[in-house]
Design goal:
Helices cover about 25% and strands about 15% of the residues. The radius of gyration is 29 Å and the shape is flat. It has six helices and eight strands, in the order ββααβββααβααββ. Helix 4 crosses helix 5. The chain has about 210 residues and is of the alpha+beta class. The protein has a domain of about 120 residues: Endonuclease III, domain 1, CATH 1.10.340.70. Strand 3 and strand 4 form a beta hairpin.
Protein backbone atom coordinates (compact mmCIF):
# COMPACT_ATOMS: atom_id res chain seq x y z
CA UNK A 1 0.00 0.00 0.00
CA UNK A 2 3.03 2.25 0.11
CA UNK A 3 2.53 3.08 -3.58
CA UNK A 4 -0.74 4.89 -2.80
CA UNK A 5 -1.33 8.32 -1.29
CA UNK A 6 -4.15 8.05 1.24
CA UNK A 7 -5.20 9.27 4.67
CA UNK A 8 -6.64 7.07 7.43
CA UNK A 9 -9.56 8.60 9.33
CA UNK A 10 -11.17 7.11 12.42
CA UNK A 11 -14.98 6.98 12.45
CA UNK A 12 -16.53 6.56 15.92
CA UNK A 13 -18.97 3.68 16.21
CA UNK A 14 -21.94 5.90 17.03
CA UNK A 15 -21.48 7.89 13.81
CA UNK A 16 -20.84 4.86 11.60
CA UNK A 17 -24.50 4.44 10.64
CA UNK A 18 -26.15 2.80 7.64
CA UNK A 19 -24.88 3.57 4.16
CA UNK A 20 -26.61 6.40 2.36
CA UNK A 21 -29.17 4.93 -0.03
CA UNK A 22 -28.10 7.36 -2.77
CA UNK A 23 -24.61 5.82 -2.82
CA UNK A 24 -25.94 2.30 -3.43
CA UNK A 25 -26.73 0.84 -6.84
CA UNK A 26 -30.44 0.28 -7.30
CA UNK A 27 -29.98 -2.53 -9.84
CA UNK A 28 -27.32 -5.17 -9.29
CA UNK A 29 -27.07 -8.26 -11.48
CA UNK A 30 -26.09 -11.18 -9.25
CA UNK A 31 -26.96 -13.99 -11.65
CA UNK A 32 -23.41 -14.33 -12.96
CA UNK A 33 -21.78 -13.43 -9.66
CA UNK A 34 -19.17 -16.06 -8.62
CA UNK A 35 -20.51 -18.52 -11.13
CA UNK A 36 -18.82 -21.94 -10.95
CA UNK A 37 -16.60 -20.70 -8.13
CA UNK A 38 -16.54 -22.76 -4.93
CA UNK A 39 -13.90 -21.83 -2.38
CA UNK A 40 -14.93 -24.37 0.27
CA UNK A 41 -15.32 -27.81 -1.24
CA UNK A 42 -18.07 -30.16 -0.11
CA UNK A 43 -15.59 -32.70 1.25
CA UNK A 44 -14.56 -30.24 3.97
CA UNK A 45 -18.00 -30.53 5.54
CA UNK A 46 -18.28 -34.31 5.40
CA UNK A 47 -17.83 -35.89 8.81
CA UNK A 48 -16.25 -39.30 9.00
CA UNK A 49 -19.00 -41.56 10.25
CA UNK A 50 -20.47 -44.92 9.46
CA UNK A 51 -23.83 -43.96 10.89
CA UNK A 52 -27.16 -45.27 9.81
CA UNK A 53 -30.39 -43.54 10.78
CA UNK A 54 -32.95 -45.70 12.53
CA UNK A 55 -36.47 -44.88 13.66
CA UNK A 56 -37.07 -44.90 17.41
CA UNK A 57 -40.27 -44.56 19.46
CA UNK A 58 -42.08 -41.24 19.31
CA UNK A 59 -41.17 -40.66 15.65
CA UNK A 60 -37.63 -39.67 16.69
CA UNK A 61 -34.58 -40.37 14.61
CA UNK A 62 -31.26 -41.06 16.28
CA UNK A 63 -27.84 -41.83 14.94
CA UNK A 64 -26.86 -45.48 15.21
CA UNK A 65 -23.09 -45.21 14.93
CA UNK A 66 -20.02 -46.69 16.49
CA UNK A 67 -20.32 -44.59 19.65
CA UNK A 68 -23.92 -45.66 20.26
CA UNK A 69 -22.96 -49.30 19.84
CA UNK A 70 -20.16 -48.89 22.38
CA UNK A 71 -22.61 -47.30 24.81
CA UNK A 72 -24.92 -50.31 24.47
CA UNK A 73 -22.06 -52.70 25.18
CA UNK A 74 -21.05 -50.83 28.33
CA UNK A 75 -23.50 -51.65 31.10
CA UNK A 76 -21.61 -49.89 33.94
CA UNK A 77 -23.67 -46.99 35.32
CA UNK A 78 -23.19 -44.47 38.11
CA UNK A 79 -25.16 -44.91 41.31
CA UNK A 80 -27.16 -41.71 40.77
CA UNK A 81 -28.24 -42.91 37.31
CA UNK A 82 -29.42 -46.27 38.66
CA UNK A 83 -31.38 -44.51 41.42
CA UNK A 84 -32.97 -42.12 38.91
CA UNK A 85 -34.06 -45.05 36.72
CA UNK A 86 -35.72 -46.70 39.71
CA UNK A 87 -37.81 -43.56 40.41
CA UNK A 88 -39.48 -43.75 36.97
CA UNK A 89 -40.34 -40.04 37.03
CA UNK A 90 -40.31 -39.68 33.23
CA UNK A 91 -37.14 -37.57 33.13
CA UNK A 92 -34.88 -40.57 32.61
CA UNK A 93 -35.68 -43.81 30.83
CA UNK A 94 -34.02 -46.73 29.06
CA UNK A 95 -34.77 -47.65 25.50
CA UNK A 96 -33.13 -50.33 23.33
CA UNK A 97 -30.16 -50.63 25.69
CA UNK A 98 -29.55 -46.86 25.87
CA UNK A 99 -30.39 -44.61 28.81
CA UNK A 100 -31.83 -41.17 28.03
CA UNK A 101 -31.67 -38.25 30.48
CA UNK A 102 -34.34 -35.70 29.52
CA UNK A 103 -34.02 -36.80 25.89
CA UNK A 104 -30.20 -36.79 25.84
CA UNK A 105 -28.07 -39.91 25.53
CA UNK A 106 -26.46 -40.95 28.81
CA UNK A 107 -22.77 -41.80 28.35
CA UNK A 108 -21.49 -44.40 30.86
CA UNK A 109 -18.31 -43.88 32.86
CA UNK A 110 -15.98 -45.11 30.13
CA UNK A 111 -12.92 -42.99 29.32
CA UNK A 112 -12.57 -44.28 25.75
CA UNK A 113 -16.16 -43.47 24.82
CA UNK A 114 -16.04 -40.01 26.38
CA UNK A 115 -12.75 -39.16 24.63
CA UNK A 116 -14.21 -40.20 21.28
CA UNK A 117 -17.29 -38.00 21.81
CA UNK A 118 -15.20 -35.01 22.91
CA UNK A 119 -12.86 -35.41 19.94
CA UNK A 120 -15.76 -35.71 17.48
CA UNK A 121 -17.34 -32.49 18.79
CA UNK A 122 -14.12 -30.48 18.97
CA UNK A 123 -11.52 -31.59 16.41
CA UNK A 124 -13.80 -32.13 13.39
CA UNK A 125 -13.43 -29.74 10.44
CA UNK A 126 -17.06 -28.62 10.54
CA UNK A 127 -16.81 -27.86 14.26
CA UNK A 128 -13.57 -25.92 14.14
CA UNK A 129 -12.04 -26.18 17.65
CA UNK A 130 -14.81 -24.53 19.63
CA UNK A 131 -14.18 -22.83 22.94
CA UNK A 132 -15.19 -24.36 26.23
CA UNK A 133 -18.68 -22.83 26.47
CA UNK A 134 -19.74 -23.42 22.83
CA UNK A 135 -18.40 -26.98 22.91
CA UNK A 136 -20.37 -27.68 26.09
CA UNK A 137 -23.53 -26.26 24.51
CA UNK A 138 -23.04 -28.46 21.43
CA UNK A 139 -22.54 -31.62 23.50
CA UNK A 140 -25.51 -30.94 25.79
CA UNK A 141 -27.84 -31.10 22.80
CA UNK A 142 -27.19 -34.84 22.41
CA UNK A 143 -25.22 -36.29 25.34
CA UNK A 144 -25.19 -36.21 29.13
CA UNK A 145 -22.97 -37.58 31.89
CA UNK A 146 -22.38 -36.35 35.47
CA UNK A 147 -19.00 -34.62 34.92
CA UNK A 148 -19.60 -33.36 31.38
CA UNK A 149 -18.66 -29.73 32.14
CA UNK A 150 -15.40 -30.67 33.89
CA UNK A 151 -14.40 -33.08 31.08
CA UNK A 152 -14.98 -30.39 28.44
CA UNK A 153 -12.82 -27.95 30.40
CA UNK A 154 -9.98 -30.48 30.77
CA UNK A 155 -10.14 -31.41 27.09
CA UNK A 156 -9.83 -27.77 26.02
CA UNK A 157 -6.88 -27.23 28.35
CA UNK A 158 -5.08 -30.21 26.78
CA UNK A 159 -5.72 -29.05 23.20
CA UNK A 160 -2.45 -27.65 21.77
CA UNK A 161 -4.15 -25.63 19.00
CA UNK A 162 -6.61 -24.04 21.43
CA UNK A 163 -3.80 -22.99 23.75
CA UNK A 164 -1.90 -21.50 20.79
CA UNK A 165 -4.75 -19.21 19.73
CA UNK A 166 -5.99 -18.43 23.24
CA UNK A 167 -6.02 -14.70 23.97
CA UNK A 168 -4.35 -13.65 27.20
CA UNK A 169 -6.40 -11.15 29.25
CA UNK A 170 -4.05 -10.79 32.21
CA UNK A 171 -2.27 -7.57 32.97
CA UNK A 172 1.31 -7.24 31.87
CA UNK A 173 3.82 -8.30 34.48
CA UNK A 174 5.47 -5.51 36.42
CA UNK A 175 9.14 -4.60 36.21
CA UNK A 176 11.71 -6.67 38.06
CA UNK A 177 13.72 -5.01 40.78
CA UNK A 178 17.15 -6.10 42.00
CA UNK A 179 17.39 -7.23 45.58
CA UNK A 180 19.54 -5.23 47.93
CA UNK A 181 23.00 -6.61 48.50
CA UNK A 182 23.32 -7.79 52.12
CA UNK A 183 26.09 -6.25 54.21
CA UNK A 184 27.08 -9.44 56.02
CA UNK A 185 26.86 -13.23 56.08
CA UNK A 186 23.54 -15.01 56.73
CA UNK A 187 21.56 -11.76 56.69
CA UNK A 188 19.39 -13.00 53.78
CA UNK A 189 18.82 -16.62 52.79
CA UNK A 190 16.77 -17.99 49.86
CA UNK A 191 15.59 -21.57 49.56
CA UNK A 192 14.25 -23.25 46.41
CA UNK A 193 13.02 -26.83 46.05
CA UNK A 194 12.95 -28.41 42.58
CA UNK A 195 10.74 -31.49 42.27
CA UNK A 196 9.63 -33.99 41.13
CA UNK A 197 12.61 -35.23 39.13
CA UNK A 198 13.52 -38.70 37.80
CA UNK A 199 14.71 -40.74 40.77
CA UNK A 200 18.45 -41.10 41.32
CA UNK A 201 19.60 -43.27 44.22
CA UNK A 202 16.06 -43.05 45.58
CA UNK A 203 15.98 -39.22 45.48
CA UNK A 204 13.66 -37.13 43.28
CA UNK A 205 14.24 -33.53 44.47
CA UNK A 206 16.94 -30.84 44.69
CA UNK A 207 17.05 -28.19 47.39
CA UNK A 208 19.00 -25.01 46.62
CA UNK A 209 20.05 -22.69 49.46
CA UNK A 210 21.65 -19.34 48.62
CA UNK A 211 23.31 -17.13 51.23
Amino acid sequence: MQDYDFTLKHIPGKTNTKVDILSRKDQVNTKEDNKDVQLLKNKLWQRKTTAEVVMMKGNKTREEDKILKEIRRNTTREKEVVQALEKRDGLIWEEDGVVYMEGRIYVPNNKKIKEEILKKNHDSVDVGYLGQHRMLELLKRTYWWPELKEDVKRYGQRCFKCQQKKVQHQRKAGELYLLEIPQGLWQEISIDIIRPLPKSNGMDAIIVIVD
